[in-house]
Structure formats: structure tokens, C-alpha cells
Design a protein that fits this description.
Layout lengths: L2 H12 L8 H9 L4 E4 L6 H11 L3 E5 L3 H13 L4 E4 L5 H12 L5 E4 L1 H5 L4 H6 L2 E6 L21 H5 L5 E5 L4 H10 L6 E4 L7 E7 L3 H11 L4 E5 L3 H13 L4 E4 L5 H12 L5 E4 L12 E6 L6 H8 L9 E7 L1 H13 L4 H19 L4 H8 L12 H4 L4 E3 L1 H13 L6 H8 L5 H6 L15 H13 L3 E4 L5 E4 L1 H8 L5 E3 L4 H4 L2 H19 L1
Helix pairs in contact: 1-3, 2-3, 14-15, 18-19, 18-22, 19-21
Bound molecules: adenosine-5'-diphosphate (ADP) and zinc ion.
Length: 535
């Protein structure tokens, strides 16, 4: 199969002249029966990557999607373009299901969308066996991984695909997966030497800002006043906050609505439609809002509270500026948010390892908000993309902190970590660098290593601050699957062994920034948080 055929289908069915970045390479991989893992931001054009092969290859492509509500839209869209597609899920009656099955067996369906529950169910297997399957596409593939942020147990049964259909290429697609999640997806699906495609997640037109949550209502008011008539979403953690904030803004003369999962479906639909059609420009919503909304002129996304992880943050802000014009993402955070989530996670009935993972991801989110590192650099590194420059379009770049040559400090930390065989978390690393007298250090013999006490010039908090920058800069990473121990990355090794230099920043001196009392409170909270729970 050649790419010319693919281009023809792209033009004929979808009306597009050229492939977007990576689409052609991905399609080529499928044509050569190679398994592949695709990480592409929402709106990046993942569907084409399996729809075009499906339409050009012999047989039927089976597309697994957990979003039953969206399946119908996609299938109708394809059919309207003359592409023979169908879906089977719990929304169909027995008769409708039978009709689809007949079409399938007659070889008239090129694309079959199924829910994961259906695909793995016993009564579906005989039908599957009788089809000539061109490829399996697993959409929202991060759902298979317990390391991802949206784990769905039914996905884990999908490993049977590769075992039962070894010759059929599997294409796993997601818009959100860190390195570990990607590794897990490939492992769980038992992909065979998969090609990995990571599209750029950079959205340079979105300006990124992070602020402390004090007086956030006033800050939001001033944003809205200086951007009159613009469309935007304000994400809040609690349903109650959505309602209150919307009422307060309306009382100030703005036209807003609220949206959360506790409202009747009809009412939710109405708010969504009003927003899409610009009748209500601003919606105060929980994260229940936004999935599947394709509105190009959203100008800002405000997070009234800290999002629970960077995956969520990036997905949510990705809803503004889809037209490529300047847009703004404004995040407020407070220590209270962290506490609220932690309580939520602890009280949930998830297993302990899941709770720990959620807390670790939350902590990373908190560090993102705190660290004086280019915001864009931090998120892009988080998704495994290399991004060496400072973006110039975030609050840190616009208002840079005091930097210094941090090479020596970084070397001390990295060297200590290597000498402890990369088998410790952040607290232990800091304690060893500061020459702590903690009994455990002596028991483990860490007082014998060369860098023990080599970092006394920085306080505990300052080391935390420096190490979180090293994480954001990609010199260190956290092995969530191994007790959250720290690891030295390739970039870290080049600092340690090849004389590469790194710029770091120290936290602002308390008196430079906030009133003393508040600072003392904040610092002890922060130390408490980092010490107690997160590493
Ligand atoms: P994703 O699934 O990654 O969120 P979609 O597959 O829904 O993204 O694609 C997002 C939008 O981009 C759709 O409107 C789609 O038609 C459009 N699109 C995809 N590929 C191309 C292309 N090669 N040229 C132009 N538009 C494209
Ligand atoms: Zn920046």
C-alpha cells in the first residue's frame, strides 16, 4: 500500500490536500503492519491516522473508543462523507446490532467503532473471528494504564488482541501520556516493537500565567474587564464554587453561566449550546465541561483552583486558542487546593498505589505552579518533548527570577544521587546533601559518601526549590513505579560528566515578596507538605 492511495483518500473523503505533521509517517507504519503508539494533542488529527488506513486497506478496521456518546457523531460524520462506518455499543437495540453484524459479514463496513466492554465480551468473539481485520485502533489508550490519569479497568483486557491476532497492526492513540504511561500502554497491549510518534504539544499562541490565589475574584474581574466580550471557561474544583462565582460575576454585569455534573442533562446541554453559539460567552464549570467541545474562538481558560495534574491542566487550557490567535491561560493556586485534593484522594476507595500516584502527580502540579521555570518548558518536558529555549510567552519568562550558575549545586545533587544508586526520594537526598544526623542515614551508610554534607549552604526549602527546578529542566525524573525514587536523566548525566552547565534560581527572599507572618506560615506549610507526603 502506498501513500499515494492515502493522499487520494484524504482528499476524496475528507477534502484535505496535505497531511499534518506525523500523519503520513503513522499511516506508513500501519501499512507496513508495524504496531505504533501515537501521542498527539487534542485537535492534532489523530483520527485521520486510523481512518485513512481503514479506508484504503483490505478488510475492516476495529476502533476502540470509551466515549460512547462521541462514537455516534464520528460514525455519522464518516457516513456523511461516504465512508462506510458503523458502531456497536450498548446504545443499539438487538435488531440494530444484528443489522450491523450482517453488513460487517458482507464486507461492507470499513470502520467499526466498538466500546472496550463490547470488544472484550465473550459473545462478540465469534463475530470478530469471522472478520478480515485490517487494524485495531485503540483511542484514548492512556485509559489502559494505571499510571495514567484516567485508568479504566476494562481496557486492561485488551491485551488479548495481540495474542489472538498477532498479524494485525495495533495503533494506540492518546492525547495525554507521560513517559511511564507510554511504556505501560505498549507493555499492556503487548505491542511488538512499536514505533513511537510524539507530535509537538506546543501551543505557542497560548500565554501561560500562574498566580497565587489571594484576591482571585478581583484578579478575575480585572481580567474580564480588560478583555470585554471574549469567550472563556473558568474551571473550579467545587460545584458550589461554579455557581457562586457565576452569580457574583453576573451581579457585576457579566454574562456567565455555570456547569457541573449535578445538573439535569437538559440544562447542561443548554449551557453547552449557549456557549458554543456565543450566546453566553463565559462558563464557570467543573472539569465535566469541555470534553468534545470544538469551539475555535475560546480566548481564555482560567483555573480558579489548581488542576489535579499536569495532564488535566494541559488538556483544559488546550481548549482556548484553537484558531491559532493569541489566547490566555491563567492559573490560580493555593495550598488549600492541595489539601482538598489530598483529602479527596485519601478518602476515595482506590487502592493505595493509585492514591500514591495521584498524590505524586498532584505534587508535580504544585511544583509546576511554584517553580520559577518557564511554564511551557516544564509542561513540554513533562510530556517528554525536548524544548530548550525559554518561551517568552509565560509569566516566568516575562518576569524572570534571580538566576545563578547552578552547575555546581546540580552536580552535588546528581552525584549524591548516583552514589546512593538512585534509590532514594527527594527528602533523603536533601538530608544527605545537608549532612543530616538522622539515624536512617547512618544505618544506610549514606554518611560515608563523598557528597554527604556537601550542600550545607542551602536550606532544606532551598534544596527542594532547586531540585524541583532540576525535575522541570529534565535533569532528574521521578520513578513513580519504584517508590518515587529520583533518577538521573541523560541531560542530568551531561551535567555530571560532560561539563554541561545549568542555570538555576533560588526562591525569592521572604522579605522581598510577602509580609513576614504570611511567609512563615507558607513556608512551614510547604515544608510540611513536601516532607510528609509527597516524596
Ligand atoms: P484529535 O482526534 O487528535 O483530537 P481530530 O482527528 O478530531 O483530532 O482532528 C482535529 C481536526 O483537524 C478535525 O477537524 C480534522 O478534520 C482536522 N484535520 C485532521 N487532519 C487534517 C489534515 N491533514 N488537514 C486538515 N485538517 C485536518
Ligand atoms: Zn516561558
Amino acid at each position: 500500500m502506498t501513500l499515494d492511495r492515502a493522499r487520494l483518500a484524504l482528499k476524496k473523503v475528507f477534502g484535505y490536500d496535505t497531511f499534518r505533521p506525523l500523519q503520513a509517517e503513522i499511516i506508513q507504519a500501519v501499512y507496513s503492519s508495524r504496531d505504533a503508539l501515537v501521542l498527539m494533542p487534542t485537535g492534532g488529527g489523530k483520527s485521520i491516522c486510523f481512518q485513512v488506513p481503514a479506508l484504503t486497506m483490505e478488510g475492516t478496521a476495529v476502533v476502540v473508543s470509551p466515549l460512547i456518546a462521541l462514537m455516534k457523531d464520528q460514525v455519522e460524520g464518516l457516513r456523511a462523507n461516504g465512508a462506510p462506518a458503523a458502531f456497536i455499543n450498548s446504545m443499539l437495540t438487538a435488531n440494530q446490532t444484528r443489522e450491523v453484524e450482517e453488513e460487517l459479514l458482507a464486507g461492507r463496513i470499513k470502520l467499526l467503532y466498538v466500546s472496550p466492554e463490547k470488544l472484550v465480551s465473550q459473545n462478540f468473539q465469534p463475530l470478530l473471528k469471522r472478520l478480515k481485520i485490517s487494524l485495531f485502533a485503540i483511542d484514548e489508550a492512556h485509559c489502559i494504564s494505571a499510571w495514567g490519569h484516567d485508568f479504566r479497568p476494562e481496557y486492561t483486557q485488551l491485551k488479548f488482541l495481540k495474542a489472538q491476532y498477532p498479524g494485525v497492526p495495533v495503533l494506540a492513540l492518546t492525547a495525554t501520556a507521560d513517559k511511564l504511561t507510554r511504556k505501560d500502554i505498549a507493555g499492556q497491549l503487548q505491542l511488538n516493537n512499536p514505533a513511537e510518534f510524539i507530535a509537538s504539544f506546543d501551543r505557542p499562541n497560548i500565554s501561560l500565567s500562574v498566580s497565587r490565589g489571594q484576591k482571585r475574584f478581583e484578579q478575575i474581574l480585572s481580567h474580564l474587564k480588560s478583555h470585554p466580550g471574549q469567550s472563556g471557561i473558568i474551571y473550579c474544583l467545587a460545584r458550589r464554587t461554579c455557581e457562586d462565582l457565576s452569580a457574583k460575576l453576573n451581579a457585576r454585569g457579566f454574562n456567565t453561566a455555570y456547569y457541573h455534573a449535578n445538573m439535569a442533562p437538559g440544562e447542561r446541554n443548554r449551557v453547552q449550546e449557549d456557549f458554543i453559539n456565543d450566546r453566553v460567552p463565559i462558563v464557570c464549570a467543573t472539569i465535566a465541561f469541555g470534553m468534545g467541545i470544538d469551539k475555535s474562538n475560546v480566548r481564555f481558560v482560567i483555573h480558579y483552583n489548581l488542576p489535579r495534574n499536569l495532564e488535566g491542566y494541559y488538556q483544559e487550557i488546550g481548549r482556548c486558542g484553537r484558531d491559532g490567535l493569541p489566547a490566555e491561560a491563567l492559573l490560580f493556586f493555593s495550598y488549600q487546593d492541595v489539601n482538598t485534593y489530598r483529602q479527596m484522594f485519601e478518602e476515595s476507595d482506590a487502592v493505595q498505589v493509585q492514591k500514591d500516584l495521584k498524590i505524586a502527580k498532584l505534587n508535580r502540579m504544585y511544583q509546576f505552579a511554584e517553580a520559577p521555570v518557564c511554564r511551557r518548558k516544564t509542561v513540554l518536558h513533562y510530556f517528554g518533548e525536548s524544548y530548550d529555549k525559554n518561551c517568552g510567552n509565560c509569566d516566568v519568562c516575562r518576569n524572570p527570577p534571580r538566576h545563578f550558575d547552578g552547575t555546581e549545586a546540580a552536580q552535588k545533587a546528581l552525584s549524591a544521587l548516583v552514589r546512593m544508586e538512585e534509590n532514594v526520594g527527594m527528602n533523603m537526598l536533601v538530608d544527605v546533601l545537608r549532612g543530616s544526623q538522622r539515624r536512617e542515614i547512618f544505618n544506610l551508610g549514606f554518611n560515608q559518601i563523598k557528597t554527604y554534607g556537601a550542600g550545607k549552604e542551602y536550606s532544606f526549602d532551598e534544596w527542594q526549590f532547586l531540585l524541583s527546578q532540576m525535575l522541570h529542566n529534565g535533569l532528574l525524573e521521578i520513578a513513580y513505579d519504584d517508590n518515587s525514587c529520583l533518577r538521573v536523566t541523560e541531560a542530568g548525566k551531561s551535567i555530571l560528566f560532560d561539563g554541561k552547565k545549568v542555570q538555576l534560581a533560588l526562591p525569592p527572599r521572604p522579605e522581598e515578596k510577602t509580609a513576614p507572618k504570611e511567609v512563615a506560615q507558607r513556608q512551614s506549610n510547604r515544608t510540611q507538605l513536601l516532607r510528609d507526603e509527597l516524596f
